[in-house]
């Protein structure tokens, strides 16, 4: 225990930063994901194709590679365009940006599945009453799709809590980065640090998954 | 509620004089209408006309194209060639969904499977389109919705969600919802086919009342008794064509075409 107490404040800051990263990245992923889902569903091939390609590339490549590309690749690109622009890329922006882009691809699929499970007849009824496409979307489709999408969204948020550990490869400030720092410093006895990090991750994810389970049961009962 | 009482122009900014002349008040008219699904020719040169206050029963064997025809009328299906006129205005198949909206609201559609909005109460189902499309005030819409629900005998269900209704009640709400847009005509696609037999009567009763009030209606139906008693004209379709049409008594008693005779023999033999 006496190895734990001195480092606990640093680990708690790491855990708090993990939550910050996720709370910033997830809403962005939800918005981008909706955009991607709408593009993917568009009549226009010049909207459909980029969305499809983005989704497939993100889902088909490791997130570690993605964060390197954003941090180093995008950083270098911006620096070559204008030296001061390189400052935009730090481990906060690269971390949040990568997580948001990565998760957007997965959330897009959840939106798609949600909208697909709304009966086709709903749209026909709406259109035959003279509703416009946007009225149909916001008043008929979205309210029916959202309850179906909430459980998988919450689930993905738990994955995000864990996936945010990828930020440690660019030496961020979240929990796994903190863990890395102390493991390196105490290479002879790293075990207590690993255990501490695991407990903190569980303390973050268990409440969310408890809420997810309850929500899912409530929504299922309502159907 | 009188369907004719509050006619709205087809397009908000078009005055009646701008519309093509409407001979004899023809609400729906198709000319040389053709529709393919892949290389299957589903509608073949359909000439179809519905006059104001007319009740037309559309009958025919399964797969003859009855649903496709009425779905083309409000552009739920896109016809491949030919013309459709709704109250004199040509339905341009290349309009965007948004541009179609003012034409679609001219025809109310009642589906076999109701397609009520499950996330809205009965009253909300009925007033949603009047609020969004007709831009009625909340009070006007609620008053309209309540009077229509009373008309179909479901006022006491106004705050209930559709999942709590029987099939017959759902279909009556769906009829009220279509009426709330005060369309020029109502299209019914087998409105009683999804219902338990004991619930068919309550829906047919509502439709009968509408017919007697002078509503313009096109009814795709397998209810031959209803077609015979209520409609002004029966149209028999087979294999994508209108084979025969006319006065219900005449057509049921003395069908001229072989295909009509066969069809009627088959369906009337199962009637009581
Ligand atoms: N979306 C579709 N895609 C392909 N073929 C279709 C589609 N809808 C209908 N068809 C075909 O078009 C033909 C006409 O169908 P339609 O539904 O209009 O017939 P119907 O007279 O309404 O029959 P029923 O009495 O069974 O409802 C049928 O052969 C049907 O298989
Ligand atoms: Mg049909």
UniProtKB/TrEMBL annotation, chain A:
GO terms for cellular component: ATP-binding cassette (ABC) transporter complex. Keywords: Amino-acid transport, Cell membrane, Membrane, Transmembrane, Transmembrane helix, Transport. It is found in: Cell membrane. Coiled coil: none annotated. The chain crosses the membrane at residues 18-39, 60-79, 85-106, 157-179, 191-212. Belongs to the binding-protein-dependent transport system permease family. HisMQ subfamily. NCBIfam families: HEQRo_perm_3TM. This is Glutamine ABC transporter permease. It comes from Dictyobacter vulcani.
UniProtKB/TrEMBL annotation, chain B:
GO terms for molecular function: ABC-type amino acid transporter activity; ATP binding; ATP hydrolysis activity. The keyword Flavoprotein does not apply. It is found in: Cell membrane. CDD domains: ABC_HisP_GlnQ. Keywords: ATP-binding, Cell membrane, Membrane, Nucleotide-binding, Transport. PROSITE patterns: ABC_TRANSPORTER_1 (PS00211), ABC_TRANSPORTER_2 (PS50893). It is a peripheral membrane protein. It comes from the Bacteria. Residues 28-264 form the ABC transporter domain. One of its GO terms (cellular component) is plasma membrane. PANTHER family: AMINO ACID IMPORT ATP-BINDING PROTEIN, L-CYSTINE IMPORT ATP-BINDING PROTEIN TCYN. This is Amino acid ABC transporter ATP-binding protein.
């Amino acid at each position: 225990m006496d190895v734990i107490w001195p480092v606990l404040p640093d680990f708690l800051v790491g855990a708090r930063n993990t939550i910050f990263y996720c709370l910033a990245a997830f809403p962005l992923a939800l918005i981008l994901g909706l955009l991607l889902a709408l593009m993917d569903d568009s009549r226009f091939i010049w909207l459909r194709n980029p969305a499809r390609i983005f989704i497939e590339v993100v889902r088909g490549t490791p997130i570690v590679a993605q964060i390197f590309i954003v941090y180093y690749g995008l950083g270098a690109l911006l620096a070559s365009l204008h030296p001061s622009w390189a400052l935009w890329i730090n481990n906060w922006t690269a971390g949040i940006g990568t997580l948001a882009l990565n998760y957007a691809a997965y959330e897009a699929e959840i939106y798609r599945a949600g909208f697909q499970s709304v009966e086709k007849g709903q749209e026909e009824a709406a259109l035959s009453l003279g509703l416009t496409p946007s009225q149909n979307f916001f008043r008929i489709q979205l309210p029916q799709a959202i309850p179906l999408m909430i459980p998988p969204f919450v689930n993905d948020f738990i994955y995000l809590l864990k996936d945010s550990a990828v930020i440690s490869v660019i030496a961020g400030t979240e929990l796994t980065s903190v863990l890395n720092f102390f493991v390196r410093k105490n290479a002879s006895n790293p075990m207590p640090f690993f255990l501490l990090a695991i407990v903190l991750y569980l303390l973050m994810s268990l409440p969310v998954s408890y809420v997810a389970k309850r929500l899912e049961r409530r929504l299922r009962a309502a159907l | 509620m009188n369907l004719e009482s509050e006619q709205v122009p087809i397009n908000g900014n078009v005055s009646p004089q701008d519309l093509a002349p409407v001979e004899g008040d023809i609400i729906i008219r198709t000319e040389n209408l053709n529709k393919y699904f892949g290389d299957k020719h589903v509608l073949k040169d359909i000439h179809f006309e519905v006059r104001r206050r007319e009740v037309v029963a559309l009958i025919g064997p399964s797969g003859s194209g009855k649903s496709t025809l009425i779905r083309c009328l409000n552009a739920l299906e896109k016809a491949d060639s030919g013309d459709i006129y709704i109250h004199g205005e040509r339905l341009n198949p290349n309009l965007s969904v948004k541009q179609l909206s003012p034409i679609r609201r001219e025809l109310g559609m009642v589906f076999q499977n109701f397609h009520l909005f499950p996330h809205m109460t009965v009253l909300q189902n009925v007033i949603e389109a009047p609020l969004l499309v007709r831009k009625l005030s909340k009070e006007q819409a609620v008053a309209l919705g309540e009077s229509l629900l009373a008309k179909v005998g479901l006022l006491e269900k106004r705050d209930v969600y559709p999942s709590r209704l029987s099939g017959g009640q759902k279909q009556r709400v769906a009829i009220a919802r279509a009426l709330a847009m005060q369309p020029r005509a109502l299209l019914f696609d087998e409105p009683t086919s999804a219902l338990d037999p004991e619930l068919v009567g309550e829906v047919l009763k509502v439709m009968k009342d509408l017919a007697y009030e002078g509503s313009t209606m096109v009814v795709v139906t397998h209810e031959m008794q209803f077609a015979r008693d209520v409609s002004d004209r029966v149209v028999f379709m087979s294999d994508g064509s209108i084979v025969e049409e006319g006065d219900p008594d005449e057509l049921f008693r003395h069908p001229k075409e072989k295909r009509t005779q066969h069809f009627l023999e088959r369906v009337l033999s199962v009637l009581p």
